[in-house]
Specification:
Mean pLDDT: 96
Number of strands: 5
CATH class of the largest domain: Alpha Beta
Structural class: alpha/beta
Oligomer: single chain
Strand order of the largest sheet: 2-3-1-4-5
Number of domains: 2
Largest sheet: 5 strands, parallel
Radius of gyration: 16 Å
CATH superfamily of the largest domain: P-loop containing nucleotide triphosphate hydrolases
Distance between the termini: 10 Å
CATH architecture of the largest domain: 3-Layer(aba) Sandwich
Number of helices: 9
Low-confidence stretches: none
Bound molecules: BIS(adenosine)-5'-pentaphosphate
Shape: globular
Helix content: 55-70%
CATH topology of the largest domain: Rossmann fold
């Protein structure tokens, strides 16, 4: 199995690049943001609770997202591997993921961190908000999400750097150029 964490601030291109990576490497895409948005759209109890945090640009509590990941891993037993997109976002989530994968005897192989400057991120998110109507894609909430990222999520990079799994990829340029750089990094690690 090959397990990849696609890491980076909001708007850095994690979802965009995941689409190409899953096709190229036949991996299962697990995006906690996408899973949560389905729960919100279906107005489930989990979704109604999560919406408050998402609309405010804050992280949903760890126990909620860790439980969701556990279920997704259980649903996908015979697979080539996973791309984790938007997870883990706190040290507690990273530790929980290591435990879940240890139980399955398959580790995280690589963590690719997409680097994009703040103003480019905000511009991308505001632009996407105009097209998609996603409720957290306005300038005020996008800046809150970015600060939440700096405070709670950025330390997760050090967690993986200490495990010698973190590789930085410049996330500015065309989608294809960035995908090419990502493939080079994956091919270096993957057998
Ligand atoms: P989530 O959906 O994960 O949002 P995010 O991390 O803020 O990331 P985005 O999906 O907004 O951006 P992305 O990096 O995927 O970029 P994308 O490819 O879309 O989370 C939403 C909320 O859910 C969180 O705020 C939180 O409340 C909750 N949540 C989710 N996971 C959680 C967790 N683990 N723990 C706790 N809470 C959690 O690209 C963005 C835009 O840029 C697009 O329009 C795209 O077309 C464009 N673009 C992409 N690449 C380029 C490029 N190279 N050049 C120009 N434009 C580009």
């Amino acid at each position: 199995m090959f397990n990849l964490v696609l890491f980076g601030p909001p708007g850095s291109g994690k979802g965009t690049q995941s689409t190409s990576i899953i096709n190229q490497y036949n991996l299962v895409h697990i995006s906690t943001g996408d899973i949560l948005r389905v729960e919100v759209a279906n107005a489930t109890p989990l979704g109604l609770e999560a919406k408050k945090f998402m609309d405010a640009g804050a992280l949903v509590p760890d126990e909620v997202v860790i439980g969701m990941i556990g279920s997704k891993l259980d649903e996908n037993k015979e697979v080539n591997g996973f791309i984790f997109d938007g997870f883990p976002r706190t040290i507690a989530q990273a530790e929980a993921l290591d435990k879940l994968l240890e139980f399955k005897k398959t580790p995280i192989n690589l963590v690719l961190s997409l680097a994009v400057p703040e103003e480019e991120l905000i511009a991308r998110l505001v632009n996407r908000g105009k097209e998609s109507g996603r409720s957290d894609d306005n300038e005020e909430t996008a800046r809150k999400r970015y600060h939440e990222y700096l405070n709670k999520t950025a330390p997760v990079a050090d967690f993986y750097a200490n495990q010698e799994k973190l590789v930085l990829v410049q996330g500015v340029g065309s989608v294809d150029e960035i995908f090419h750089k990502i493939c080079l990094e994956i091919d270096e690690v993957k057998d």
